[in-house]
Amino acid sequence: NLYAKQKEFHANIVRERLLMAGNQLGKTVAGAFGMARHLTGRYPGWWAGRVFDRPIDAWAGSVSTLATRATVQRLVCGRPGKLGTGSVPKSLIDDKKSAMGTPDLLDHIKVSHVSGGESILAFKSYEQGREKWQGETLDIVWFDEEPPQDIYTEGLTRTNATGGITYMTFTPLLGMSDVVKRF
Predict the structure, then answer these.
(1) CA–CA separation, 85 vs 74, rounded Å?
(2) Helices in 120-171 by DSSP H: which ranges?
(3) Which residue, 35, 53, 69, 75, has fewest beta-carbon neighbours within 10 Å?
(4) What amino acid positions are annotated as catalytic residues?
(5) How far is it, in rounded angstroms, from Cα 139 to Cα 51?
(6) What is the secondary structure of 64-130 as a DSSP string?
(7) pTM score, whole prediction
């Protein structure tokens, strides 16, 4: 169950969204919950936000590969060795590919969408640099923890052709940064 503020975050249908709050208040949980809804096309009855009636292509990432594995991947997929215990049930994860270089990090997962197709979620990190955030056309990009401005802009650009959404979940540890000023 989500809190009222988390539901309000998901109800907002603008292309760029930010859930900014203190530590341990459920920002990443809300981000993973929303990503799972979009990947599967299975939305709760109270959902008032954007709905994808087709499979999506998405990226989700954090500061480092270790942070991505420990937060984003854990809350979407489950802990290493416990695939399907996150916000996407095991029965809907059709395939997974391991990433190179970081033990137990996934490169991507393929998820059954209610429409009959497959959504794809790739896991990224900011430490890869802006160049690794180029080139793809996506429906959703989720940044967990505040990204550098150039990576945020690159991620946002990935959703231009689809009219997709970009959302962030973080505590503003960097103060009034250029990313925070956008909101």
Answers:
(1) 8
(2) 149-157
(3) 53
(4) 145
(5) 11
(6) SHHHIIIIIIHHHH-STT-TTBSSSBGGGEEEEEEPSSSTT-EEEEEEE-TTSSEEEEEEEEGGG-G
(7) 0.95
